[in-house]
Amino acid sequence: MPLLAVALTAHPYAEPFWARDLTALVERLAEPPVDPADAERQRLFGDVVRFLNCEPLAPLRPEDSPLAPRALLRLEVARRGRLGASAAASATLWRDVLTPDFFRRSALLPKDQALRWPIEEENWPSETLELRLRPSSCAQPVPATDELPLLTSELEREVDKALGAEVAHRLLYHRASRLLTLGRADEAREVARRLSPSAMGTAPRPLGQLLRLGLGIDPPEGYLALVDEPVLAPSRLPIVAQAAAHLSTQARWREVLALTEPYAPGPEARASLSESPQRWDVFYRRALAYQALGEREPLARMWPSVFPALASAQEPRVEALRGIALVELARGTLDAQALTLLRDLGPSSAFPQRLATLGGLALDRGNVRLALDASERLLLEKSALFRARGHTLRAEVALASGDAAGLTRAVERLLLLRRQEHVPAKDLEELDRVVLALAQALVTASADLTEARWRPLLATHLDGMRQAVHSRHEKTFPALLAALEDRGPQAAAKGKRLEAFVAVGQVAVGAPPGLEPPPPLSVSWPEPWSLLALPLPEGSWRDWFPREPPSPVSAPAKTEVPHAP
């Protein structure tokens, strides 16, 4: 048992306090202390009375005793200053303290010991007021303060020594969570490293665990154990998002779907721009899971609930969702349903670009028909830039199918567009990049085109591209032509590396597509209900009364006061 608990055993002041009888407590404090230990108890509960009456508490000196519980009273006063007018409705003990009838503030003496009559200004000559409790000041405004400067390492050590680990670690949690709320994550992390969630007690333990997880101190698999914790129910979605992201890194896709099912988009739960990035991330993880498991039908049913609702969003996870949708579309045909989804992905100005991307993805998967359909639609666009992408896609289809004549037509039309058509100056550089990308594609494809007719033809097209683009790109082509010819190492000046240019084709390196990281954990960190530690009659301590709707204690009519006979 902590030293303070031993010192405060069996004292007479705890009983009226825990009975919520403030007048009885004042009556007992009126008696002179019987010994030094009793004097310490009186100092503590004298502070308690002033605390409950919202009266100022004098600063403590290092030699004041008992120091720790009295310092916690001052800590709570500072917290009220931070909470301000919201304190009365907050999930803290101030909701009780600021409720006028939570404590009995009028004496209830037996009828044979007191006479009662309405309050009146005139007093009898021998009349005295036996007990007197100052009127509460709790209705008065309080100055703005903050408890964080009082949450020091010195207080932490004093509390740990006097009151035990549970109170000390509860303060550590509060200090770290306040620092994190204020954006001082590095300081919060240093404090939280000293925090042992198991030492906080059973009920608040999950709060400490979540804090350490959110600060990156503990490994992310810890989120899985917190998903169903009742105390964390208001923060369940952010926790689910973090847990699902962790499961995704381990390809535990069935578990991802089961965990995120309550947040699955559907006809009754469509996505919304007003929703948090955590919910968007859940949609993303579910799409990844369906894709990895090859479950195309539930993935297809998911899209109408996500797009076009998120069509204007540019958030990375929404972009990743668009990417998954395009990969799935690349497996099929460019029918009306596919075009609808392609437009719904949004924004509308990006439709031609997404069409070009879809054509490239289709070609990578050998879906030549879809690639050609995409190129035809691109060639109908007003923008020269997107028509250029249509010609490029046609050229790549011809390369893939070994159609030399088709390749020549596509390249000639692309270069004609570059030379003759009026292209806005802002688009010229982008158009040159389209041409350069096709030049690279020609060289890459040459590794698989082994017939003798292909190398001269490709070299001719490369030279035509060199002449068509801006002269600043001239230096790009010698390396491409050398790779096309599989030119060996060339002589180099002394001290320079030898350079060789070889076309090796398209190489799959086996790296999986990157997963988007989850959004940072963003929760409203719950504050401890109480920062106090007050002794019970038998000597142990408790932080405050149980968290439940209080029933007001009975009190005499406010128009009466007790008088001694």
Task: Walk me through the topology.
Blueprint: H1 3-7, H2 14-18, H3 22-29, H4 36-52, H5 67-83, H6 94-97, E1 115-118, H7 153-163, H8 165-181, H9 185-192, H10 205-214, H11 236-249, H12 253-260, H13 277-293, H14 296-306, H15 316-329, H16 336-344, H17 351-364, H18 368-378, H19 384-401, H20 404-420, H21 425-446, H22 454-468, H23 477-484, E2 534-535, E3 541-542, E4 560-563
Antiparallel strand pairs: 1-4, 2-3
Helix pairs in contact: 3-4, 4-5, 5-7, 7-8, 8-9, 11-12, 11-13, 12-13, 13-14, 13-15, 17-18, 17-19, 18-19, 19-20, 19-21, 20-22, 21-22, 21-23, 22-23
Please, could you describe this protein's structure?
With about 575 residues, the chain is mainly α. Helix content is about 50%, strand content about 0%. A two-stranded antiparallel sheet has the order 1-4. Strand 2 (about 535) and strand 3 (about 540) form a beta hairpin. Helix 3 packs antiparallel against helix 4 (about 35-50), helix 7 (about 155-165) packs antiparallel against helix 8 (about 165-180) and helix 17 (about 350-365) runs antiparallel to helix 18 (about 370-380).
